[in-house]
C-alpha cells in the first residue's frame, strides 16, 4: 500500500540526492591540491577544504536533507517499493542534472538506461496500485 504523499516524498528524496550529486562532484574540484605532511593532517586539510567551500557545502546539506526525508519516509512506506523507487529515480535525476550542467553522460546507452529505469519504476508503482489498499 502506497500513498500519493509517500510517492511525492520518494520523488523529493530522488531530486535532493540526484540533483546534488553533480554539484558535489564540482565542489570537490581542487581537493587534490591539498598537500599535508602526514595522513591525519591531510585528512583534516581536506575536511577544511570541503567545509569552507560553499560550492560543496550547500549541495552537501541539501543531499543530507534528502537522507532525512528518506529516513522518515521509510517508516511508513513499503521497503520493497521505497528502495528501488528512490534509488532508480536518483540515478535518473543525477543523469539529467549532469546533462544540464554539460557533463558527458554516455550518449544513446544512457538514454536507453533512463527509459528502462523509468519503465521499472513505473512497474513498481503500478504493481502496488493493484494491491488491496494501493495508491490512495
UniProtKB/TrEMBL annotation:
Signal peptide segment: none
UniProt xrefs under SUPFAM superfamilies: Multidrug resistance efflux transporter EmrE
Gene3D superfamilies found in the cross-reference section: 1.10.3730.20
Chief localization: membrane
Membrane topology: Multi-pass membrane protein
Superkingdom: Eukaryota
Gene Ontology cellular component annotations, sorted alphabetically: membrane
UniProt keyword annotations, A-Z: Membrane, Transmembrane, Transmembrane helix
Subcellular location: Membrane
Similarity section: Belongs to the TMEM234 family.
Designated name of the protein: Transmembrane protein 234
Amino acid at each position: 500500500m502506497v500513498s500519493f504523499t509517500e510517492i511525492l516524498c520518494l520523488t523529493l528524496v530522488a531530486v535532493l540526492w540526484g540533483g546534488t550529486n553533480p554539484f558535489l562532484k564540482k565542489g570537490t574540484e581542487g581537493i587534490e591540491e591539498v598537500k599535508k605532511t602526514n595522513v591525519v593532517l591531510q585528512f583534516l586539510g581536506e575536511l577544511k577544504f570541503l567545509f569552507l567551500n560553499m560550492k560543496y557545502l550547500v549541495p552537501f546539506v541539501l543531499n543530507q536533507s534528502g537522507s532525512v526525508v528518506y529516513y522518515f519516509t521509510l517508516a511508513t512506506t513499503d521497503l520493497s517499493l521505497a528502495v528501488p523507487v528512490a534509488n532508480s529515480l536518483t540515478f535518473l535525476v543525477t543523469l539529467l542534472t549532469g546533462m544540464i550542467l554539460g557533463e558527458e553522460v554516455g550518449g544513446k546507452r544512457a538514454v536507453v538506461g533512463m527509459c528502462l529505469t523509468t519503465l521499472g519504476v513505473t512497474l513498481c508503482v503500478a504493481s502496488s496500485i493493484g494491491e488491496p489498499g494501493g495508491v490512495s
